[in-house]
Amino acid sequence: MGMVHQALRAVLTGAVLISSSLSYSQVGSKPGFNVTPSAKDWQDLAKLPDWSGIWNPKITDQDQQVKTNMPPWKPEIADIIKFQLAEEKAGRPTPLFVNCLPEGMPAWMLISHNSMEVLFTPGRVTMLGESDGNRLRRIYTDGRKHPVDPDPTFHGHSIGHWEGDTLVVDTVAILPQAIFAVSEAAGVPHNGDIHITERIRLVGKDQLHDELVITAPHVLTKPWKTTRISFRQRAQKFDIVEGVCLEGSFRPAKDAKGFDIYEPIPMDIGGNRTPPQ
Amino acid sequence: MKQHNTSAALALSILLSFGGLPVAQAHHSTTMFDHAQSVTITGVIKEVQWTNPHVAVFISGSIKGEEASVWLMEMTSPGNLTRVSNWTRNSAKVGDKVVVAFSPLRNGKKGGALKRMTLEDGRVLTTDIRAQESANLEETQGAK
Q1: Does B28 sit within 8 Å of A185, measured CB to CB?
Q2: Which residues of B touch A84 (CB under 8 A)?
Q3: Which candidate, B59, B46, B52, places its Cα nearest to that of B114?
Q4: Could you tell me the mean pLDDT of each successive run of 10 residues in chain B, 144 residues long?
Q5: Rounded to whole angstroms, how far apart are CA atoms B87 and B91?
């Protein structure tokens, strides 16, 4: 083996070592491909903070922030929100989320009344929501960038990294139709170009705080900061089970041949079943 | 200001129009129910719909001073009910005799938001989703 070969082998070995030590802090040798996780990548998950369990939102704080921390809406949007809040108070809530499309971002994080769980796998954090089969956020922590021209989705494209025990998430490419809501009855479509950064961390043993900064140039005059709080539940009886939003629009029935089928339930404009009479 | 009101109304009409699609159940405010009022109905459960996103029970019974009829009672999701008050899909079954306190629909129809259901054996089930705001509910509060 000549000197050139030896030198080349040293360089290659070094390159492999560097690549392996960077691991998921940088996507490996094949840009654009999901890397096969190593045993060490799985072991490294143990160094992350413990976010196991079920997290249910602090709804009273969501309620409170409508009064104390309103987003800096553009004047014409502020008028709509004010009108919607008055309508809600008067018993005529605007039906923003009654079509069973996902609440999407940022509404899921801001106004959900349902729980979620958070899963860690190599290169990825996954949030799974309750009560709506489409509630799912994939946050890539493998060092990738946002795609150049991603297809917009309800939850957007999220990349994240850990700063100590804090998960820092950056989200773009959210469908312009997704509602930027401060309550289930007050909000508007963000109309595009929304950008959300989040710092998510444990506070104490059993609270998860999500500090959001939302930039939404078509509806806000400046970025808005807010924190959303969740409580940990470990009891197995609270485990998140399948929840399909549209299921509630049907009732079980039998067809003429005795098959178990679903039949639609009449609904009113507010998203409730129509009372019998 | 007038211009703003017009745009508010316009935006609202856009938000309200679902292109003729049937409205489905989903995540919504509950102020169509008059939460300042509490009405009590005594009767028998006719049907239970233990489904996401909202559980419902139909009760055949009477409210003091009124004729007997069937009432629809709406609730939150199965998951929330479990955390709030240990509900399961078998907590209240067809044929059970119950006393239910509820906030009625403002439009006068026979529907309400169920607040508290008392069963014949004395069990009391509640529905307030804001009553689950602490960690490890089962350990700290024990079985209700």
Answers
A1: yes
A2: 12
A3: B59
A4: 47 46 73 95 96 94 93 95 94 97 95 97 96 90 48
A5: 6
Q: Do A267 and B74 touch (CB under 8 A)?
A: no
**From the candidates A52, A54, A56, A229, which should be mutated to test the interface with B, based on the most B CB atoms within 10 A?**
A56
Closest CA to A185 of A248, A115, A270: A270
Q: What is the pLDDT of residues A46-82, one digit of tens each?
A: 999 999 999 999 999 999 999 999 999 999 999 999 9
The answer to whether the CB of A145 falls within 8 A of the CB of A128 is no
Facing B23 at nearest CB: one of A99, A112, A184:
A99
Q: Does an H or E element contain A54, and which?
A: strand A54-57
The structure tokens listed for A130 are 């309750």
What residue ranges do the domains of chain B occupy? 33-141
**Type and span of the H or E element at A202:** strand A195-203
pLDDT of residue A3: 52
DSSP state of A47: G
The span from the CA of A218 to the CA of A83, in Å, is 19
Domain boundaries, chain A: 1-28, 54-238, 249-277
Its CATH architecture, for the domain B33-141, is Beta Barrel (2.40)
Question: pLDDT-based confidence at A6, cuts 50/70/90?
Answer: low
- Measured distance CA(A144)–CA(A140) in Å, rounded: 7
Its pTM stands at 0.86
State the burial class of residue A218 (Cβ atoms within 10 Å of its Cβ: 0-12, 13-18, 19+). Answer: middle
Q: Which of residues 155-174 of A touch B (CB under 8 A)?
A: none
Q: Do B129 and A113 make contact, defined as CB atoms within 8 angstroms?
A: yes
Q: Does A132 touch chain B (CB under 8 A)?
A: yes
